[in-house]
What we know:
Layout: H1 2-15, E1 28-36, E2 45-53, E3 57-63, H2 71-74, H3 89-100, E4 109-113, H4 117-139, E5 143-147, H5 151-157, E6 163-168, H6 171-176, E7 184-185, H7 189-195, E8 198-202, H8 211-221, E9 224-229, H9 236-241, E10 247-250, E11 262-268
Amino acid sequence: MNDILETLRTVLAERSRDLPDDDFRLRGMWCVDYRSQPTEYERFMAYSFVLAQTVRQGCCYADFGTVRLGESSDGLIGKDARLARGSSLEEDIAILDAAFGALPRTPAETLTIDGRPEVKALTRARTAVGETMRLLTRVGGRKVAQIGVMGNLIHHLRQEDVEITASDFDPCLIENGILGVPVSPGEDSARLVAESDVALVCGETLASRTLGELVAAAAEHDTRLVVFAVTGCHFAQEYCGTFGIDTVMAEPQPQYLFQGPSTLEIYRKDALGAHGQH
């Protein structure tokens, strides 16, 4: 995981060299606790997230109540987000994500979703599952691992002719499963990826320090990888171009939980031109 962040920082330094320094000035930070159940298919969610802002917002999710912005964060405001470091991993990821938000990017597809949060919740999940099925059809398989469980993703996967495995670190999910699908402990995630044809992975695996091993397991076992990134959404192009992830669906802020339109950016490794490779 640290290797991923260090590689991203190296790429950022290179790609930002000719861009205005002011684009990378850290303008603000937020820490939000929330509880929500956006649809009947989703588990009751209790999370916190950190937002950092340059010209765009970077985000990192965390377990409820585990992140706080204190006076130590005050000194970060006005600093260059390419160089700033927070007091926690979550702050570091949000700040780096905000710095990447200032870079030009070229998604293969951009979608605007609108409506009530519950409508957008299902639309974004359906889109992520659609990208998963696109890869599954290509390889001719039917085994899908859903890593970092989201009930709306499981709901849409259950409507397809696929075998579903799932993993998460939430003890309640591990004990009870979700929508009839058993959930394995997060420690089993790499094994599930290795045993699947396509793995649909939540971007929060970066903050749980597991994304690196999942990428390695996918590469070793020829598993196609789809990452659904709210945490680290602006890393999406590098995830494909530098780390070889097949598809990333990124959701920049403001995300679906809020009223009004939201944007989904889809990056595909096989659609990246020379400008997307580093």
